[in-house]
Amino acid sequence: MVQSLIDEGRLTPEEAASHPQRAQLVRALEGGVDFAPDLQLLEAHPGERYLLCTDGLTGVVPTETIQEVLAGAATPQQAVAELVRHAHEAGAPDNVGCVVGEVAAAA
């Protein structure tokens, strides 16, 4: 919900970090009979990394740190381990889930 408020310009990312409804979901995959997931096509390039994660990570680890870890880790697995470590060190009050995928060159 809070992300939609940011997208509408009604909240800043800084305000969203402490918003009381920051964990409220407004959409979920297979959340009902008629669902349509949000889809976005991105042009992927070899070496780029994509992160799927819960707010257990983004709620306590600054965006800049996440970007540095994704760019600096030798492998996606190392990036996951380091991101989870950062979240735990920051006192993550929730579960921390993340997956890092890396775009491979075409064979």
Please describe what this structure looks like.
- This protein has 107 residues and is α+β, with helices and mostly antiparallel strands.
- The protein is built from 5 helices and 2 strands, in the order H-H-E-H-H-H-E.
- It has helices spanning 2-7, 13-16, 55-58, 63-72, 76-89, and strands at residues 49-53, 98-102.
- Strands 1-2 form a two-stranded antiparallel ribbon.
- Helix 4 runs antiparallel to helix 5 (76-89).
- The longest helix has 14 residues, at 76-89.
- The radius of gyration is 16 Å and the shape is globular.
- The termini are far apart.
- 10% of the residues are buried.
Write the layout of secondary structure elements.
Blueprint: H1 2-7, H2 13-16, E1 49-53, H3 55-58, H4 63-72, H5 76-89, E2 98-102
Antiparallel strand pairs: 1-2
Helix pairs in contact: 4-5
